Amino acid sequence: MQERTAETLALRNITKTYSGVAALTDVSVHIRPGEVHAILGENGAGKSTLMNVATGTTQPDSGTISFEGEEVHALNPKLATSLGIAIVHQHPAVLPDMTVLENLQVALPPSVFEGDTMGTAQALIDEAGLRVHLRDRVETLTLAEKHLLEIVKAFAVRPKLLVLDEPTAPLGGDAVDALFARVRAAVATGTAVIYITHRLAEVRELADRVTVLRDGQFRGTADVADISDEELLALIIGRKLESTFPPKRGPGQEGPANFVLDDFSGPGFASVSASAQRGDIIGVAGVVGNGQSELLRALAGLESFTGGVEVEGRHVDSSDLLHRAAYMPADRHAEGLMMSLSVRENAAVSALKRFKGPLLLSRSAEVDQVRESLQSISVKAPSMDAPVSALSGGNQQKVVISRALLSDPLLLVADEPTQGVDVGARAEIYTILRDASTRGIPVVVASSDAMELEGLCDQVLVMSRGHVVETLTGDDVTEQRIVSAAVTSTAEAVKGAAAERTTTSSRIRRFILGDYTPTALLLVVMVALAAYIVPGNDRYLSAFNITNLLTAATALGFIALGQNIALLTGGIDLSVGPLAGFLVVIASFFINDGKSTATMVLGLLLMVAVAAVVGAVNGSLIRFGKFTPIAATLAMYIALGGFAFLLRSSQGGYISQSFQDAVNYSLGPIPVAFLVFVALTLVLEYLLRRRPWGWRLRAVGSEEESARRIGIKVDTTVVLAYVCTSLLVFLGALMLMGQYGIGDPAQGSAYTLTSITAVVLGGTSLLGGRGTFVGTLVGAVLLQQVLNATGFLGLGSTAQYYFQGLLILVAAVVYTVARSRRGRDTSVA
Q1: 208 near 37, Cβ under 8 Å?
Q2: 77: helix, strand or coil
Q3: Could you give the CA distance from residue 572 to residue 800 in angstroms, rounded to a whole number?
Q4: What is the dihedral of CA 708, 714, 715, 720, to 10 degrees?
Q5: Strand pairing category for 443-446 and 281-285
Q6: 288 pLDDT band (50/70/90 cuts)?
């Protein structure tokens, strides 16, 4: 073991600014091996920025980074991992569209899985107490389980430096105890641990030394044993905090009830009854996953329920709650905020009716009222038009509160309102909730922190397995009574309660929720359509018809495979159709009868080069030019169409007949090109599921920021993806040369929308991160089958468009319903 006086990590004079606003100013921190070093500070103090610098996610403007005595230049996540630096992010860097196993494989070095991949992965999650199946998609995990998965990744590499950024925020007591035990075991082997938290009790229990940041500046370092809580608070907030909790309604202030629940029941909870008067805050307690979140979602109108709800003596239904209740979810990133929008837009979105002018919304009214609301709760932001993603966690939570208050809510429902929030902001949030209650807005708060409920709430409903097992009021609202009621309950589980996740999930259920279900549905449709046509027309299964159908499907299929790659990254390529046509026009000058073999080979090489350049330009415009995928590829669509007409203003340049014969060669009724198409699809599917190329592709489309945090080179991945897209279009162009045999500048354009249709039918998400190449193959064949079927059924040529539209509509409805059901089934426990 290294000497304790040696430094594992030294951050010296680190400065980082964003748009002229200083996040860190001349900060120095020294971390020793075999110690837990706590970093404290309010939200926005610079803690997470400093840790992003330490792990290579963020590059400092100035300062130096040394690891084990050696200065490190241009630190990045991949280099940090190789040095032995691991981080558990406050917001887990997990990829929701990928499985638990794939998340581990894409984030961890291959050396972790030498030998038995499944066995090693299972051992890793078992050690962390993560009771999920390796094939479960991460989006189906609860927030606590996602945090445990993040912890699994960090400990798996046996790091020399482990950074834990608010790791216990969503975890229950047992999970916290298990985490602390693992941290102590790692420290005993010499691992240095940086522990970021807002809980002073955790600092006392776990840390050896503590450093405080405030306003992006270093405020002091001390041994934990040598500094009091009062001294720490003074360093953290720069002022004396008179009281964490605002005063409750005093005795003798009783009045009529303004909020009543009568036998309130829904998915995961049953027979909840409560009554509160103006000025009361109702708390909901219990071990995580016993129906608290489900109860709050029902109160927000997001779940169906039975029973009665009264506000100010008036019965309200689910529609009233859905449109007038303000909901603050536990996972503000997933449900509470639109991270790509500005602070102002997030705050104003629920209160647009308040900003109505004579005809349109009044921008001045919106700005004035939003500014007043944000200032009243002390939101710290560069400006109202700054992206909300740039704010600290506490300020993001205040934006959620601002939106709730601006909407003039009927009811305010808050699930874990102070999760990941510093002590100063926490006190401000408590005051905001108390003021809302005093103004007559019923407030219901769920929290896993019993001490928080004791200090804030006038009455507490303690839940176990979906039932209220005890209602505490007045002086009985104590941490001891709350915890005792929760852990000693013998209530039986309510159907649908997320009390405990089973260790395994059904293989059938995983398939239904997986990527291959759309493919299976399309195969059923194909068989049904053929079965309908064949009895009335025996020519449908003739060799001639099958050959024509599969040849056309192959041309579309190659282009659709390329489109699929772009969509998997979260982008789209509108230029695939014109590119195919442009490549055929180029070929029409080189691949002709009478031309030498060398000339033809030159033509093919030129086509490949042009395709690669087009893909590289598309990807570069998107990643480096900051164009949206639609804007970049639409510009390329127009440019390629123009170039094609410049080369040939009309059809001309017949393709060599021998080349056409080679492309159209068949083995019986099956074109050889179709067999190549199938083989290539299977290879791509294997790469997508089992190899790093596919994991990186899907990771970028699933959650770009998480992909960047785990060391994926996002820009490189996207640019290469668009190059691959264009190279697959080249294969589609070869098929068009064989089918049409002439250079036609307009022939490829229709393939843009058709390729998107085939990909979407195959189950690939337009949002990225999810899809299959096999589904794209089946989607391409089905589209050509529909086109082919219209002739045999004696329908007009326009019928094919109705069929395609109907297929897309059905697919969209089925996939949307499936995903919404999945979301309800896996709400945060």
Answers
A1: yes
A2: helix
A3: 24
A4: 170
A5: parallel
A6: low
Q: Does the domain made of 545-803 have the CATH classification 1.20.1070?
A: no
CA dist 19 and 382 (Å) reads 9
Asked whether residue 489 carries a pLDDT value surpassing 60, the answer given is no
Strand order in the sheet with 459-464: 325-328, 411-415, 443-446, 281-285, 459-464, 467-473
DSSP, collapsed to helix, strand or coil, labels residue 649 as coil
pLDDT at residue number 526: 84
pLDDT in tens, 555-600: 999 999 999 999 999 999 999 999 999 999 999 999 998 899 999 9
Coil, helix or strand for 135? Answer: coil
SS3 percent helix, strand, coil of the chain, rounded to 5, is 50, 15, 30
For domain 257-487, the question of CATH label 2.120.10.30 is answered with no
Q: Which two tokens stand for residue 55?
A: 């792990």
Whether residue 723 contacts residue 619, with contact meaning beta carbons closer than 8 Å, is answered with yes
Q: In this structure, are residues 105 and 73 in contact, taking their beta carbons and an 8 Å threshold?
A: no
Measured CA distances, 477 to 43, 153, 429, 448, 462 (Å): 29, 39, 20, 14, 10
The Cα 219–Cα 196 span in angstroms is: 15
- Closest listed residue to residue 643, CA positions, set 582, 598, 571: 582
Structure tokens at 802: 């109705």
Q: Alpha-carbon distance 506 to 333, whole Å?
A: 29
For the chain, what are the domain ranges?
9-237, 257-487, 545-803
Give the residue with greater pLDDT, 21 vs 72.
72
User: What is the rounded average pLDDT of the residues 713-730?
Assistant: 95
For the residues 417-437, what does the mean pLDDT come to?
Answer: 80
Half-sphere exposure of 592 (CA within 13 A, CB side): 12
What whole-number distance in Å separates Cα of residue 180 and Cα of residue 130? 15
Pair of tokens at residue 387: 């992206």
Token pair belonging to 665: 């060669």
- Whole-Å CA distances, 622 to 108, 631, 716, 717: 28, 9, 11, 12
Q: What is the mean pLDDT of the chain?
A: 84
Domains 9-237 and 545-803 are alike in CATH topology: no
The alpha carbon of residue 182 and the mean position of all alpha carbons in its chain are separated, in whole angstroms, by 28
Under CATH, domain 9-237 is a member of which superfamily?
P-loop containing nucleotide triphosphate hydrolases (3.40.50.300)
- Which three-class secondary structure string do you get for 496-530? CCCCCCCCCCCHHHHHHCCCCHHHHHHHHHHHHHH
- Predicted TM-score (pTM) of this structure: 0.74
DSSP assigned state of 712: -
The pLDDT assigned to 675 comes to: 96
Helix (H) / strand (E) element for 87: namely strand 85-88
Residue 231 is which amino acid?
E
